[in-house]
Every structure is written in structure tokens, then in C-alpha cells.
Design goal:
Two copies of one chain form a homodimer. Chain A is of the alpha/beta class. The first copy, chain A, has helices at residues 7-14, 18-26, 33-46, 52-59, 81-94, 108-119, 136-144, 167-180, 196-211, 228-239, 255-267, 301-316, and strands spanning 64-68, 98-101, 125-128, 148-151, 162-165, 186-190, 221-223, 249-252, 277-281, 295-298, 325-328, 331-333. Chain A has three domains: 1-49, 434 Repressor (Amino-terminal Domain), CATH 1.10.260; 59-164 and 302-328, Rossmann fold (3-Layer(aba) Sandwich), CATH 3.40.50.2300; 167-299, Rossmann fold (3-Layer(aba) Sandwich). In chain A, the strands form two sheets. The first copy, chain A, has a six-stranded parallel sheet with strand order 2-1-3-4-5-11, with helices on both faces. A six-stranded mixed sheet of chain A has the order 7-6-8-9-10-12, with helices on both faces. Chains A and B meet through α4, α5, β2 and α11 of A and α4, α5, β2 and α11 of B. The first copy, chain A, binds a DNA duplex through residues 4, 6-8, 16-20, 22-23, 26, 28-32, 35, 50-51, 53-60, 121.
DNA sequence: TACTTTAAAGCGAACGTTCGCCCGAACGTT
DNA sequence: AACGTTCGGGCGAACGTTCGCTTTAAAGTA
């Protein structure tokens, strides 16, 4: 664990001042070809690596991007995290930045955590996820004018940079696919009204239904949590009716609901993909292994992560990004379930 | 985005030198009650937060822990990552440290990345995962004497700090459970021989079989990748024989294999949990939603993450941790599959 | 020859901390 | 009255950079 090689070490060896070494290695200043090459040779030989902290100290920047996420419960899985983190870290590193993960806390402590990271100079910007209406982080960061990008939208009247997946378009694709395969009796399992994401997806559904000339039965629009249990209960209710009067397709807003619905259909003796189509959202990796494999809407997570960081890099440099409100299209993955 | 409040700002306002402010806020030095309180009041009022980078600069430490992980493919999911990261970040933050995620690269670039982070002073230690025999990272870090903790074991002759889940014990629990429910014709789907983890788990299986007085049929120990496809194919072969001559239990080394095996059993018209018991490993969240729900071995991921960081904190402080080779017991979660 | 321009490299300063040494004043002791 | 001790706090230095100004010497121009 030998000591760090510094500019002074290189300078001593090369017989110049350490500032000159800095000039050479950064490409500034006037230095003769010979000394430049000598300095480079010595630096290489000694294995000089600039001390990141000293550099940040001098630059008055941390070159760090703060990120925290809502931890999932013990029996849940965040199948987004790996791809999102990997893509953000890659994009950040390519620009000389790093990602700084920090613990997620709720309530007033949350904004305090963001404040702490800003005031201690730990980060130059944030990527925030799991945003919803009236998100206190967004309000705080907007007020302070601190660079951040949200993965997800909030109140329409707020003006901030975001990247989001067009959930409405996803459900539009689902409806169009179902209609094109001759299914018109379509029910939907949605989320509670306080969910920005849920409302967006539901709106896309209703719009696509209208566009197809279908009037959705209000009793076939059920709101509840995005859980297996709700999916199972709601689908049981919907499918309890006789064949002619029940839906022949159930659309859900996430895969966990869809899996619950599959269980309900199975328990009622229905053949999924034939008697009833079921389509999920998220395309969780497990969807492909279900029986039958679940059709689902896949979100371009990696692209979203990259885009978030790309925009944030502009903001942190004080530039106005070319586009700072980005909507990415998801894609429907059709499998045997519908 | 106002400028950072520094010690000098507080000092000016309190009418003392900035070094005195530092003393007060760090609890060192002799300062009278009155000035101390005055300084504290001013600091609070001005919202002073120590500049982390300057502090690190002075301390010649980064208070960062490097961590990178193998990104999973597009249709896979890393159901460990969330819990592992969350627990490590929590443990690190409690000690004033942060986690620094960085991209995973294979081959010679990998050690170079570790080297770069060390030489640039970005990190004070590492947690490494996905270790296997002859892991070049372990060799490099051991040679440099740089603090690190591995989640997982490597060659037995290496001497380094690690935390691991006792996979052998997990399989022992599986065998004992199966035997206690009257199943003795047990097959196992294992991994290729170059997997340290796979060999450990298989060894536990064989040992438990022997302890139960059972001689495992060599043809019932199949090695292959931890994929759905291998699980399905291998199980098909095993279950193709007539009822009296085929296994009545299949143990796998991960859930994906188990799901493949479930599919094979299903396609052969067998009732899982009755005609054939199937038990997985990892207890992926989806296990509970399968049909029937999959029994599986659950690893104490959060405890492992916390323990890794705990040990690493000792190492980074130059202390010898009380225990630096930790083996955690997994637990079998019994569900309807066996 | 005297002066101006340019190239090459040195040097001081600063970023915000913390650490250790020093100094003055007040107090108590012989 | 002279001296030692303690308390309170100031001050210089350093961590490793980068930036910009200054200096020196050489080359070019009148």
C-alpha cells in the first residue's frame, strides 16, 4: 500500500517544477517537446495517477451524481435497478463522473438528506426516481436551482428536466394488439388515483379504447394496489360471470398484478391465452418463464438511465440541454398469454 | 445555488479564527463555554456543513468503498442487488463512508480498474462479489495489501477476509427436509465444475445424502448451466423413466433451473409437490408466485452486506477484525413444491 | 546596438479542512 | 516578587491540484 505518486514526485524525477508537470499532463501551457516527452515518460514509469480528491478540491466540484431509490420489500424485487444503475454508471464514467448511492428515507428526513449532500459538496447533481405528484425533492431542488433530472414526471405545472417512459403509449399498444386479435371485451386493473404513473397508463388505455370505438364498462376498470393479491381478487370477480358476459381480456399495470390474474383464471379453469388474454406491464424477467409466458410491455430502462445522466451532465456544466423533457416509447412483447 | 458556507464564514461572524471554529465543531482543543456556544449558534444559523472533499483531502482518505458487480443479461434479473446495495450503503453511511459503484469489466481491464481507483485515491477499500477460483482481483488486492472484503470464497489457500453463505448447509437442509417427508430418490441439477459456489453446494448435498444413508446415483447428478433451458432438459431426462425408477425429488442450485424443471414435470403430466418434489435455491421473489409455489433456500443477503462492510471498516482503519471469515446460514423456505 | 516579441518554465496562490505549535493572560504557588 | 501552570485561542502548515502571472533567455526587428 505504497504512498500515492504525486506531481511533485514526477517533477523531482524529471527535474522541473511540479506545476510544469501539471501543465504537460493537462495539455495547457507552453512546454518544449523534449521536456514534455521526458515528463510523460517519467509519469508513466512512476505510474502517476492524478489524485481525484485533490483535483475535485481545486475544481470546487465533486464530479458525483447522487442517487437513491426506494428499497423494495423482502419478497419483492427491483428488476429495474441493475439495468438502471449500470447504464447510469457507464454514462457517468464516460464523462469523468461517478454515481453516489445514498439511503432512501421518507418524510422530512428525505429532503434533509438531499440538502446535506448539496451543502457538504458531495454531489454536483441528482437523478431522482419514484417521483409522484407534489414530490418534495423536486420542489426543493427547483427552489435551490440545483441540477437534477427526474426519471418520471410530476405535476404538469412544474418545469424541470425529466426522462419518462410513455406509459400511455404502452397501453395504447396493448389495446391495439388485443383488438387486432379480435378481443374487445377488455377489462383493466389499475392503480390508486394518487399514482401519477398509474393515471398516465390508464389514460392511454381509455384513449385507445375510445379510438377503437369501444366503450369501457366502468365496472371493468378496477383500481387497487399493484400486488399479486389484488390482481387475483379483482380477476376472480371479473371472471366469475358467465362466458358471454365476462371480459375476454384483462390488462394490468404491472406484472405482479398480471400474475395474480393468471392465478385467478387458472383456478377458475380458464385457459389463459384462449378463454382469456392477460397482458402485464414491466416485462419482468420472470414473465418469460410463467405458464403460459406472459405478454408484457417492456420499458427501455437502459436508454432512460443513459438519457437521465446525459441531460444531467449538461445541467451540471451550466448548459441548457437540447431536449430536457424526454419521453421514451415502450414496446409490447407478445407471448402466449394474449 | 449559493456558495458553500465555510469555516471562515462562521469564524468571521463569531469573531474568532477559523481554526478555532474547527476545534469547537470537532470537539478538540480548549475553548471557553461562551465562545463555544456562540460558535455553535452561528454555525447552526448559517447552516454550516463541513465540506466533505476538503475534509477527505486533509485526511488523505476518501471514505469511499468501491463496489462493482456483474451486470445481468437483458432477460435476467439480479434479485440480490437491491438488498445487497441497500444494506451496504446503510452500514457504510452509519460510519461516515459512502459506496462508489463502478462499471464491471472483464479480463485485464478489470484489475486495471481497481488499480486506477486505488491510485487516484478514490476509494479506501473494496467489496467484491462474484468471486471464483483464482480471482485476479483477490490476487491483486492481496499483493498490494489494499483493504477489501469478498462476498464469497475463493481458493482455500488464499488468506483474505470474506463473508459467505454456507451453501453446503443449505443443501443439507434441503436433503434433510426431503428425507423427513419420505423422499429418498433424490436427483440434483448442479453447475459446471469450475464454479466454486456450485461445488460447495453440491458437496453439502452429497454429504447430507451420505449422512442419511443414501447413495446418490451418479446418473442423477447432472451438471449444466444455471438456466431455465438446462433445468428443463435435465429434468425431462430424469423424469422420462417409469414411476418406480425415476427420482421423486429434484434439487437444483438456483431457482431458474428449478423453474425449468417445473416446466418439464408439468409437461410430463406430473403433479409437482406430489409425484415429484422440486426445490430451488436463492428464493427469488417470483418463487412464491409460481404454480405451485416453489420451495427454495433463502440467503441472508442483507446480513451479508452489512457484515462485509463491517469487516471492511475495521480493515480500512488498520484494525484486525474480530472475525474476518464469516459463514452465514441460509434457511429453507418450504412451499407447496416439495 | 538597443529594443520588442515569443517560447519555456518557474512561482505564488487558492480550494476548505485539521493538526500541532506557540503565545498571552490570568491564576496560583513558593 | 518571581516563577510555573493552565486556559483560551491564534497562527502556520500541509494535503495535491490547477490557474494565471512573472521571470528568464533566446530569437527577431529596427
Amino acid at each position: 500500500m505504497q504512498r500515492q505518486v504525486t506531481l511533485k514526485d514526477v517533477a523531482l524525477e524529471a527535474g522541473v517544477s511540479y506545476q510544469t508537470v501539471s501543465k504537460v499532463l493537462n495539455g495547457h501551457g507552453q512546454v518544449s517537446k523534449e521536456t514534455e516527452e521526458r515528463i510523460r515518460a517519467v509519469a508513466r514509469q512512476l505510474g502517476y495517477r492524478p489524485h481525484a480528491i485533490a483535483r475535485n478540491m481545486r475544481a470546487q466540484r465533486s464530479f458525483m451524481i447522487g442517487y437513491s431509490w426506494v428499497p423494495t420489500g423482502p419478497d419483492q424485487v427491483n428488476h429495474i435497478l441493475d439495468q438502471l444503475l449500470t447504464s447510469m454508471v457507464e454514462e457517468a464514467e464516460a464523462a469523468g463522473y461517478h454515481l453516489l448511492p445514498f439511503t432512501y428515507r421518507d418524510g422530512s428526513a428525505q429532503v434533509e438528506d438531499y440538502r446535506q449532500l448539496i451543502d457538504s459538496g458531495m454531489v454536483d447533481g441528482f437523478v431522482i426516481t419514484s417521483v409522484n405528484y407534489d414530490d418534495p425533492r423536486i420542489l426543493y431542488l427547483m427552489k435551490r436551482g440545483f441540477p437534477f433530472v427526474a426519471f418520471g414526471r410530476s405535476n404538469p405545472e412544474y418545469d424541470f428536466s425529466y426522462v419518462d417512459v410513455d406509459g400511455a403509449d404502452g397501453l395504447r399498444q396493448v389495446v391495439e394488439h388485443l383488438v387486432s386479435t379480435g378481443r374487445q371485451r377488455i377489462a383493466i386493473l389499475a392503480w390508486p388515483e394518487d399514482s401519477r404513473v398509474g393515471n398516465e397508463r390508464l389514460a392511454g388505455f381509455l384513449q385507445a379504447m375510445a379510438a377503437a370505438g369501444l366503450e369501457p364498462d366502468p365496472n371493468w376498470v378496477l383500481r387497487g394496489e399493484g400486488t399479486f393479491e389484488f390482481g387475483c381478487q379483482a380477476a376472480s370477480r371479473l371472471l366469475a360471470m358467465p362466458a358471454g358476459r365476462r371480459p375476454n381480456a384483462i390488462v394490468t399495470l404491472n406484472d405482479t398484478q398480471a400474475i395474480g390474474a393468471m392465478r385467478a383464471a387458472h383456478d377458475l379453469g380458464l385457459t389463459i391465452g384462449k378463454d382469456i388474454a392477460i397482458i402485464g406491464f414491466d416485462d419482468a424477467p420472470m414473465a418469460q418463464y410463467l405458464f403460459p409466458p406472459l405478454s408484457s410491455v417492456r420499458q427501455p430502462i437502459r436508454a432512460a438511465g443513459r438519457k437521465c445522466v446525459e441531460i444531467l451532465l449538461h445541467l451540471m456544466r451550466g448548459e441548457k440541454p437540447a431536449e430536457d423533457k424526454v419521453l421514451l416509447k415502450p414496446s409490447l412483447v407478445v407471448r402466449a398469454s394474449g
